[in-house]
Specification:
Helix 10 links the parallel strand 10 and strand 11. The protein is about 30% helix and about 20% strand. The protein has an eight-stranded mixed sheet. A six-stranded mixed sheet has the order 2-1-3-4-5-12, sandwiched between helices. Helix 9 runs parallel beside helix 10. The chain is built from ten helices and 14 strands. By secondary structure, the chain is an alpha/beta fold.
């Protein structure tokens, strides 16, 4: 697991494209998100198809081709400094193979921000572009437009990343110890369903794996983790940091599943690190060398997320 290239941090006046690679977007929340970005002295704009809804498949923000075109056009536009997803949902797996990764690599590094379903794109950006990406609140997400903690941590990550190099757990260690590695991860279900497909890594060896999910009952989390264990995807992982498990049933029922499936790996496992589908979600970078200390409940980045 190698460190990836860090994009430049944002500065006042940076141009930011908002795209919708997955599910449909509520216009009111999109406008609120754009207003918030303008309040940070950024220059945001919505890609042409952000408010589209697929005619036959209303769980998608327009056609696969249009969603891919929006992302590629924004990424390859030399005036754009950052590309931010409008929301998660579902659909990134349907459009990721339509992107011209050679053209996107030629466009050079810039900030990519998304979470949840965008896990598919985080993996692709790592594999095809070798680029650090940010897993955090999205432009039309409730957390982004309404939660001050989420806003402040994201803003610091974008503009002054050296000020947010340590994340601290509110829980306890599921397995003790300390480990170093390069961060990767995202939504558990997307990582598992992406295994074996193009633009996805073959495993987490040498990495610090950050996992979270939403809407999965404990037995389904068990099933997905068991799948990753049986395939060998978790072989050699250096350590694991767990985020939120919103709508995954009572945590007292889920926690034994996490401990049972991950505790036998012989690596430190930290819970409740405050990223994912939770109120006040923190922004975490993928592709950065870091140290995970389960005894203190901290994840400390070796360097700022952005250059």
């Amino acid at each position: 697991m190698k460190e990836l290239v860090r994009p430049p941090r944002l500065a006042s006046g940076a141009r930011v494209a908002v795209v919708a690679p997955s599910g449909p977007v509520a216009e009111e929340r999109l406008q609120a998100g754009l207003d918030l970005l303008r309040g940070w002295d950024l220059d945001p704009f919505a890609a042409p198809h952000v408010l589209d809804v697929h005619g036959a498949l209303p769980h998608l923000a327009g056609t696969d081709a249009d969603r891919a075109a929006d992302l590629q056009r924004a990424w390859c536009d030399p005036s754009v400094d950052a590309v931010i997803c409008a929301r998660g949902g579902y659909g990134a797996q349907r459009m990721v193979d339509l992107l011209d990764w050679e053209a996107m690599r030629a466009a050079g590094p810039k900030v990519f921000l998304g979470f949840s379903d965008s896990t598919t794109l985080h993996e692709a950006f790592a594999v095809r572009l070798g680029l650090v990406t940010l897993y955090g609140p999205v432009a039309a997400g409730v957390d982004f437009v309404k939660n001050a903690r989420a806003q402040e941590h994201l803003k610091a990550t974008l503009f002054a990343p050296e000020t947010v190099r340590t994340l601290t757990s509110t829980g306890t260690a599921l397995a003790p110890g300390r480990a170093r590695g390069v961060t990767l991860g995202g939504c558990l279900t997307l990582l598992a369903t992406g295994y074996g497909t193009p633009h996805t890594r073959s495993g987490a060896r040498g990495g610090l794996l950050l996992l979270e999910d939403v809407g999965e009952r404990p037995y389904r989390v068990d099933r997905t983790l068991t799948h990753l264990l049986r395939t060998g995807w978790l072989d050699g992982v250096a350590g694991i940091a767990l985020g939120s498990w919103a709508q995954c049933g009572p945590y007292e029922e889920l926690r034994p599943v996490l401990a049972d499936r991950l505790g036998g790996l012989g690596v430190p496992v930290v819970e409740e690190l405050g990223f994912g589908h939770c109120d006040g979600a923190l922004t975490v970078p993928f592709g950065i060398a870091a140290e995970l200390d389960a005894d203190t409940g901290t994840l400390t980045l070796a360097m700022p997320a952005l250059s």
